[in-house]
Design a protein that fits this description.
Helices cover about 50% and strands about 20% of the residues. α7 runs antiparallel to α8 and α10 packs antiparallel against α11. It catalyses: ATP + protein L-histidine = ADP + protein N-phospho-L-histidine.
Length: about 375
Amino acid sequence: MLDHQSRYQKALQIQREISETLNKSTDLYDILQQTLERLLDLMELKTGWIFLIKDTTSYELVAYQQLPPALDDNREELMHCYEGCTDCSCLQLYWAGKMKQAVNQMQCARLEAAVELAMGETWGLSHHASIPLTIRGKKIGLLNLASPGRRRFEDDELVLLETVAYQIGLAVERVRLHEQPEVLLIERERNRLARDLHDSVNQKLFALSLTSQGLQTMVTENEETIREAIQDLQHLSQEALTDMRSLIWQMRPVDLDQGLTHSLAEYAQKIGVDLSIHAPKELSLNRCYEEALLRIGQEALNNIRKHSGTSKASILLQEDRHQLTMRIIDKGSGGVLETDQSLGITSMKERVKELQGSLHINSEAGKGTTVTVRVPLHEKGR
């Protein structure tokens, strides 16, 4: 056993080395991974992982070290949010505001699930210490540490871990502040490009459309071939004009102040789709989910306008305790879809994957198309 002076000196050494590690990079994932590895080494522990809060209730696994095979081999299922998952006790306490300081003994629901489902070796781990990451009282994440045969941390160790957690919190804030100018620059560039497209390409397409209309009135009845070519030109220019307006609209910053359904209805009106929406009066979704679902809905509405042969569509939103379902339905020609490799379908799939959800497209000739999106909610999406 170390005496009091030796323990004090070791604590100072750990804080100094963690501080040095946290200042080695401006890449958030890199510094958190390096810091976690160094902390485990200095405290002679084996396993650890860090969650960062993405918004009010959703989280991301940003760093991990020496997870037991049961967790590592099933990381996507056990260490991320997924449909049917009940978030573990540490996160429930954290979100409820009941974890103000380091918690010594926390029985891990993820490890329990791994044992119950025989998902692999857990190295006998069943408990971990949980240390909240905060900045001036604001929740930003959670640090979990464990070691085989270790079920309890000494009080001075917990105090040290709280100090380290505070250092990590400051580093996260520093990196995020460093990133803000870049984010603002990208946003300004998007707005500038949207303005330029509107002021140049959009106006030229509009002029082309008017020119083709004028030419059509000048063609005699005996010049049917020319008339058909001009009609094709007018049709293509109108389509290009609508596509350009849609692109400009999507490049603008997302405004969800009036809710998801209002934004979907507004977008449908902009691109000329007659949309009816059936949804609960209030959807308890956080900003991250609302923005992703809006972008998915926009892409589905674009496909309806381009491919369905109808200008009418409906969106059905259903929410229960565990998941939200969004269906985008048209009664158009059906059977005509963009390929799975197309940008539109790929974009929808990527956004759904980020929410750990599922996407299904059913399109039958003569019966229309239904796009069904299901995303898990539990606590993180609310």
